[in-house]
Specification:
Largest interface: A-B, 67 and 52 residues
Radius of gyration of chain B: 32 Å
CATH topology of the largest domain in chain A: Sulfite Oxidase, Chain A, domain 2
GO molecular function (chain B): electron transfer activity; heme binding; metal ion binding
Number of strands of chain B: 4
Strand content of chain B: under 5%
Number of strands of chain A: 26
Radius of gyration of chain A: 24 Å
CATH class of the domain at 61-183 in chain B: Mainly Alpha
Keywords (chain B): Heme, Iron, Metal-binding
Distance between the termini of chain A: 59 Å
Shape of chain B: globular
Structural class of chain A: alpha+beta
Order of helices and strands of chain B: HEHEHHHHHEE
CATH topology of the domain at 61-183 in chain B: Cytochrome Bc1 Complex, Chain D, domain 2
Largest sheet of chain A: 5 strands, mixed
Largest sheet of chain B: 2 strands, antiparallel
Oligomer: heterodimer
Number of helices of chain A: 8
Shape of chain A: globular
Protein name (chain B): C-type cytochrome
InterPro entries (chain B): Cyt_c-like_dom, Cyt_c-like_dom_sf, Cytochrome_c-type_DH
Organism (chain B): Spirosoma validum
CATH class of the largest domain in chain A: Alpha Beta
Strand content of chain A: 25-35%
Number of domains of chain A: 3
Structural class of chain B: mainly alpha
Helix content of chain B: 40-55%
Strand order of the largest sheet of chain B: 2-3
């Protein structure tokens, strides 16, 4: 009997997602021995697995891999092309690797690390090929930084969570070899001004990157949060460009070609370019205006992740929590408004406040129960203040496109429900 | 053995260890253990790439035509290939497919013109590069270079950029000027107080 119980509990976590999707009735599908000694599969509810008193029963034995509690319903939200991080369910600033957002252009490739190689060629003295093991022999570097898709803004209805609005941002500790180390190894020529980064997925995704970024702080990463990269994040090797739009951090990296000009790939011409104010004001009726290209830096942004839809609150003390970040450096300050933007108070920033990294903020507020709106806005160390949606429309025309980072407002209704306010 | 017999060697060891630690401490202050300038320029890891393996992977095409292979494409042949291999996702004639239009139309019912090759792609070489590396979506990398040239010719003609008789190859494609090229400007955001 004890043996059976251990077997059941050990798979509780492993099958928790399936259990959650199947509803509360069946917690797990477990292997159970019948009275006649036959092993069968059987659905078991969470309550059947839970002892009345956990202090009166020996717990699960040590396992090979930890599991998330079956009570924690924390999942990404996938579409055909991406999957969004549940920002409202996170604590602190590190995104659990299995909840890091996904965005790919032709699925997640299956790659044998023993067969994967990185070629560096073009304007170099010595074209070189590195195996994954070769890359791991070089001096390594780690840094904690966010990675955000530049198409990370959705709006349009009140019943949207932080995950729905901007779940295409996540943060990890990335470990790998500096690209500058590989540049020196191959002998990048002085006339090289751009390099092409190419992935080994079915889209053979490519971006042109200024060589300067490669010398500055680019990492060829093979690890994330203490273990090898997840396949969704580029296993076995990816480019990581701190502070830059996520698409440039090419995953499943197989080739780097040095050049004296950009390659003008599809992802830097017909995609990842956005309308801006040209000589004439940009309006829908005007048709095409000017379009900005190679918009690498992620503009500073913040969002309150609690309280936020779909959670509800009660009158009294509430700790407003959120994250703020900038692709241009550190977060200088975050301000919170609890009166629909009429006045702003400084939020407390949680250490560490890192360069180009999600930074946690909080502001303790005593809610009197009267309907109001709460908002946050970040200022980064360059002095950039997070804009309103209307300021973005004024600068770029009234089309929501890449690099939209507006102040996000939450309406707190008197019944304690919290709704997204699409246009503050 | 009593405690006194341990005292002398013990004290000696203590003095030695203390002075050793002091020496290391001084070294740390005056000279870092791993100075950056002592790292070699070359570690000697990896192996030289052969010309053959570079050629196998080097599929990119630049706006100046560097990287375009031998071969050529005709508009009418491209039209047939498009109908067979592309229209299911991109629509008959490259219009209104489930995965977006590729060809510009004047559709007054739309709020704004759909972004297509004709009105939004700044370089013709990108059409060849992208089709060859990623299309058709369900069979990526399955087209021959000639098929890619045919499709490129057809899509440029359907968008009104070249005529039906123009042959597309490594010489002619880079010379095609796209209507959208003049619309693109480089990023000039610099941080600070300005919202751009």
């Amino acid at each position: 009997m004890t043996k059976k119980r251990i077997q059941l509990e050990q798979i509780t976590g492993r099958l928790s997602r399936r259990a959650m999707l199947g509803g509360a009735a069946t917690a797990v599908v477990a292997l159970v021995q019948t009275a006649s000694g036959k092993t069968i599969q059987q659905g078991v509810s969470i309550s059947e697995l839970l002892p009345d008193d956990p202090t009166k029963q020996i717990g699960t034995l040590a396992g090979e891999v930890g599991t998330r509690s079956a009570f924690e319903k924390v999942v990404k939200k996938p579409s055909d092309i991406s999957s969004r991080s549940p920002l409202q369910d996170f604590y602190g600033i590190i995104t659990p690797s299995d909840l890091h957002f996904e965005r790919h252009h032709a699925g997640v490739p299956a790659i044998d690390p023993a067969k994967h190689e990185l070629l560096i060629h073009g304007l170099v003295d010595k074209p070189l090929v590195f195996t994954v093991e070769d890359l791991k022999r070089f001096p390594s570097v780690s840094r904690i930084a966010f990675l955000e898709c530049s198409g990370n803004f959705r709006s349009g209805k009140e019943t949207m969570s932080p995950q729905d609005i901007c779940g295409l941002t996540s943060q990890s500790e990335w470990t790998g070899v500096k690209l500058s180390t590989l540049f020196r190894e191959a002998g990048v020529k002085s006339n090289a001004t751009w390099f092409l980064a190419e992935g080994s997925d079915a889209a053979v995704m490519t971006r042109s990157i200024p060589v300067k970024k490669g010398w500055d702080d680019a990492i060829v990463a093979y690890a994330q949060n203490g273990e090898a990269l997840r396949p969704e994040q580029g296993y076995p090797v990816r480019l990581f460009l701190p502070g830059w739009e996520g698409n440039t951090s090419v995953k499943w990296l197989r080739r780097i070609e040095l050049s004296d000009q950009p390659f003008m790939t599809r992802e830097e011409t017909s995609k990842y370019t956005e309308p801006i104010k040209g000589a004439e004001p940009v309006r829908r009726s005007d048709g095409p205006g000017k379009y900005r290209q190679f918009s690498f830096d992620i503009d500073a942004r913040s969002i309150i992740t609690f309280p936020a839809y779909p959670k509800t609150v009660e009158k009294g003390w509430i700790e407003i929590r959120g994250i703020a970040w900038s692709g241009r450096g550190k977060v200088a300050r975050v301000e919170v408004s609890t009166d629909a933007g009429k006045s702003w108070q400084l939020a407390t920033l949680q250490e560490p406040i890192l360069d180009k990294a999600h930074t946690a903020f909080r502001y303790v507020w005593n809610w009197n129960g009267v309907e109001t709106e709460i908002l946050s806005r970040v200022t980064d160390e360059t002095g950039y203040l997070q804009p309103t949606l209307n300021q973005l429309f004024a600068a770029r025309g009234d089309t929501i496109s890449y690099h939209f980072n507006p102040i996000t407002a939450w309406r707190i209704k008197s019944d304690g429900s919290v709704l997204f306010k699409p246009e503050p | 053995m009593n405690l006194y017999s341990l005292w002398l060697p013990g004290a000696f060891l203590l003095v030695m260890l203390t002075s050793r630690f002091q020496t290391i401490g001084e070294d740390r202050r005056t000279s870092p253990i791993a100075k950056v300038d002592t790292l070699p320029t070359h570690f000697g890891f990896g192996r030289p790439a052969t010309a053959a393996e570079i050629a196998r992977l080097d599929i990119d095409v630049r706006p100046d035509g560097k990287g375009l292979p031998a071969g050529e494409g005709q508009v009418l042949t491209g039209k047939q290939i498009f109908a067979a291999k592309c229209a299911a996702c991109h629509g008959t004639g490259g219009v209104d497919g489930p995965n977006g239009s590729l060809v510009t139309t004047t559709n007054p019912g739309r709020k704004r013109p759909e972004k297509t090759i004709g009105n939004y792609w700044p370089y013709a070489t990108t059409v060849f590069d992208y089709i060859r590396r990623a299309m058709p979506f369900s069979q990526p990398g399955s087209l021959t270079n000639d098929e890619v040239y045919h499709l490129t010719a057809y899509l440029l003609q359907a968008n009104g950029i070249i005529d039906e008789k123009t042959v597309i190859n490594a010489q002619t494609l880079p010379r095609v000027v796209m209507p959208a090229q003049k619309l693109f400007v480089p990023d000039d955001r610099k941080g600070g107080s300005e919202i751009k």
